[in-house]
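Standup notes
- DV: blocked on the single-chain target, sequence here:
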Amino acid sequence: MPADRPVPLDEYPIHQAPLSMKHLVSGDRNAYDRCIFHVFDHAGRAVLILGLGVYPNAGVIDAYATLRTGDELRAVRASDALTDDRMNLSVGPLSVTVDVPLRRFTLRCEPDPADPDGLSYDLTWTGAFPAVWEPHHVQRRGDRLMLEGRRFVQAGEVTGRIRTGGEEITLAPGEWTGTRDRSWGVRPIPGEDGGRAEREHRPEGFHWLWIPVRFEDRFLMVIAQEDADGHRTLNEAVQVFPEDSGRRDVQLGWPHTEIRYRPGTRHPQSAVVHLTDPSRKPLELGVEILASSPLAVGAGYPPATDWQHGTWQGRGWTDRRTYDLSDPAAHPMAAFGVTDHSARFTLDGRIGHGIFEHGSFGRHDPTGFTDHTSVAP
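- DV (later): unblocked, structure below
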C-alpha cells in the first residue's frame, strides 16, 4: 500500500494525533510496542516465556518463545517486515490473538514440520484480576532519553497444551499460573552509536525487581529499580482484587527486599520483601525460587549475542534452537541480563505463585556488591 493511503486502523476513532495510524507521533528509531507472557507450573518443572513486539520506525515485527524444562531451554524466534495490518499479531509460527481485550488471549506456536519434537503450544490465557498500571518508567543517560515506557500488568489462568521433546504437557487447572505485561514507548534497539551520553554517563550499577504474584483472592505487584548507591528510581507495591469484589487497589508502601543469593553468584535462591499496609502493619512477602529462565538466552533481551528484539533479520526469518543451561560458563552474558524466576510466595498465611524478575549489575551498595565482578560470598 502506498505511504499516502489510509490504513485499516484509520477507520476507528482511536487517533491521538492528526496522523494516520500508520505513523507514530515520535520519529525515534527506538519506538516500540510489545507484550510478554509468562506461563509456569507450581512445581518448578517448566517456565514458558513468550512475547511479540513491533518497532514501527524500524519497520520490524518480531516474536519469541522459550521453554525451560530441567537444564534444557528450547527457543523459537521469528522476525519479518511490519505491515499496515496492526491487528494481526503474528509472525512466522508465533501468534497472540486478543479474544477479549484485557481478559482472554489465544497463544500459539505452530509445530515445525521438520522437527516434530520441537517446541509448540496452543494455550488460552484468561485474566483473573483487572489489569493494573505500572509506574511511568523513564531512564536518561546524561540528557539523552534512553527509555520511556507505559506498562500494565495482569495475572490469570492458563489452559491448553505444550509440546516439547516428543512430550505433550497438559496444563491442569490449579497447577499453572500466567502473568503478562503490556508496554509501549521508547526502548533501545541495538545498532545505534550511543555517542557522548554512553561514554561519559555509563552507570556504575543497576538493580531491578519486577514481581507479579497471584494469590487465590488477590494479585500483588512489586517493582523496585535502584542505582548503584541504592537511590530508588522506580517504586511500586500494590494489591489488586477481583473485579466483582468491590474493593479498591491497596498500596503497600515502600518495598525493601532481602535476597539470599547462591554463593559465588548473583542468582537468588530465596527472598523476603518487606511491605506495609495502610494501617502501617508490616507485611512479609516470602519468596522461594522454583525455576529460572535468563532472558538473554533465547528470548532476545540484552545482552543476548545471537538475536535481540527490533533488529532486522530479513523477511520471513525464523530460528529454532536448543540451549544447554547446565553449565553457566557456556552462557557468560546471561549473568549480565535480567532473569525471570518462577517462585512460590507466602503472604499472611496465603500461598501464591508468580515471577521474581531480578537483575543486578555492577555496584549496589545496599547488597554489598562493589563492582561488576562482585558476587555473593
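- Follow-up: The two ends are 60 Å apart (CA to CA).
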